[in-house]
Structures are given as C-alpha cells and as structure tokens.
Amino acid sequence: MKKSREMEAGRPMTRLERARVVREAVLAISPTHGRWEELQLGAADQDRTNRVWTVDSGQGWTALVDTRFTRPAPVLRGDDLHASTVAGLKPPETPDQCIDVYWGTVGKVVSISRTDGVDRLIGFTAGPWEAAFGLTEQPWPPAIARRFQKSAA
Question: What pLDDT is recorded for position 135?
Fold first, then answer.
C-alpha cells in the first residue's frame, strides 16, 4: 500500500502544506506537459489578453502557472486612478509566481502564490482530487457534493 505524505509526516498536513505538494507536482511535470496559451481578460471588446503557461496532465486536472513577467499590469483608469493617487495607495503587489489548479467540472480547487519566498494560500477546496497528487483522499465539501447529486438526478 502506498503511503501518503500525511502518513509519512505522522500528522495531518495543513492546507498550505498540501497546496505546496500540489505546486511541486505541477512544476515537476511542467516542462513536459506545459504550453503557452493566451487568455482573454475582461470583455472580448477590450482586447486584453494574458499569456500563461498551461499544464495539462491528462489525469483530470489542468494548472495555470503565472509569473510576474506573464501577469498583466493593473490598469487603473479615470476616477479609480485619481482616487488611488490622492489617497497615496500603491498598486497591488504582483506575486513572483501564482499557480491555479482546476479539476474537471468542479473548477478551481487550489490557488497558491509566492512573493519574495513567502507562500500565500489563496484558495483550497479539499476533495478526492488530492489523491492524484499523492495526498490522502478527502471527501468533497457538502456544497460541491450536493451539486454533484443534483446534476446526477
């Protein structure tokens, strides 16, 4: 029987630790399963796109890897620009790296960023998908489980 990373650690892993395991797995296969893609930002008539590295494992999940060099600069216009300038607000800091993992029809299940060597967990949805990354399989949260039940009926 294959031991999960949680069994090896002897304690349950935090959501941030589990997200780090997922990130490392995504980055490990990125060179062989990744490709550049252009994604539309906002309405199609705004003609703004973002170039991201997309990793498709062929195992039910897809990841988007974004860096400070591929992420578009924040665009402030009109009143927003004036208000932020008057208030002395700085634009939001761009992370060095951001990884979003999408699972089948569920959507985004994990989002983790790193800025100056500090990891920040943006979002994490526990579920059976974790087993694909060597983690202990978790049940879906009740809201997602109910959505599956409704779509099956």
Answer: 95
